[in-house]
Amino acid sequence: VIHPSKLKSPYTQEQVAAVKKDVEAILKNKDYDDGSIGPVLVRLAWHSSGTYCAETKTGGSNGAGMRYEKEGGDPANAGLQHARVFLEPIKEKHSWITYADLWTLAGVVAIKAMGGPEIEWYPGRTDFVDDARVPPRGRLPDAAQAQDHLRAIFYRMGFNDQEIVALSGAHNLGRCHADRSGFEGPWVNNPTRFSNQYFKLLIKLKWEKKHLGREAQGAHWQWIARLPHMDEEDEPLMMLPTDMSLTLDDKFKPWVEKYAEDQDLFFKDFAAVFGKLIELGVTRDESGLAKHDGKAGEYKSA
Ligand code: DDH
User: pTM for this one?
Assistant: First the structure.
């Protein structure tokens, strides 16, 4: 099976560079959240990929199933319509790019622009023409749960414990919105700058349980804490039950500690694992285009 870098690209390098430039240009947005649409673009790339099931070879970013109500209307994807709407003018301008490629590329561009690592991205994803192959709901993680659930969800995609912790470091970016997930607040004090701060704070701060009283949305409580310089009126930082479970597990915790100590190691591992995430289920043929039957096989190495 051929590595995607060796396959024919459906787009020229100039075309890809033009889309990257246009994504970079829309990231800063003073009217949105913390001044950047970067975090929600990263979440779009992740949620479009994170439906993958290695056993049945279904789900994943190929197909751009979130355009359909079946996937786009999944409560787990609440809020991602904003990300898709932000990217629409870029899709209109560069109509040759598929949604599946655009959503994953935008996530990679956003991570880099927010100070994160360069992540390898390969083109060739194709869009479904109807919703027949859209993966079932319920494949994305539920933040109210703990380690066992994280393992069930991420092992299904083919990730190991180290990769689960590295991927979770994406919560350096962005925030929770009460009207989207039922949780609220940012994980770190500079949520538009990619770093290993999330791991440092997970270990260092004294986290307290805060009840949210939103049982209807499934969110009962989250963890909150403030940095020494923060006032009582300042919005506190937060951790989801799943985030905290990384520190309560013998296999996960050593990785949290390593990434808290060594930002270079975190960047290197994050780049590798995010690159793997956006390739899940993308099986291209010799023309460089991904099929929807999962038959073209998976590449092993370059
Ligand atoms: Fe996440 N995430 N995520 N996450 N995520 C939320 C926001 C963001 C979980 C739950 C939530 C990953 C893993 C997990 C980002 C990236 C990644 C929100 C808040 C919840 C809840 C949504 C809202 O209210 O707007 C859970 C649970 C897991 C897990 O089980 C590990 C991963 C792997 C990534 C990734 O990108 C690799 C980003 C970025 C955000 C911020 C979005 C925003 O709008 O800001």
Answer: 0.96
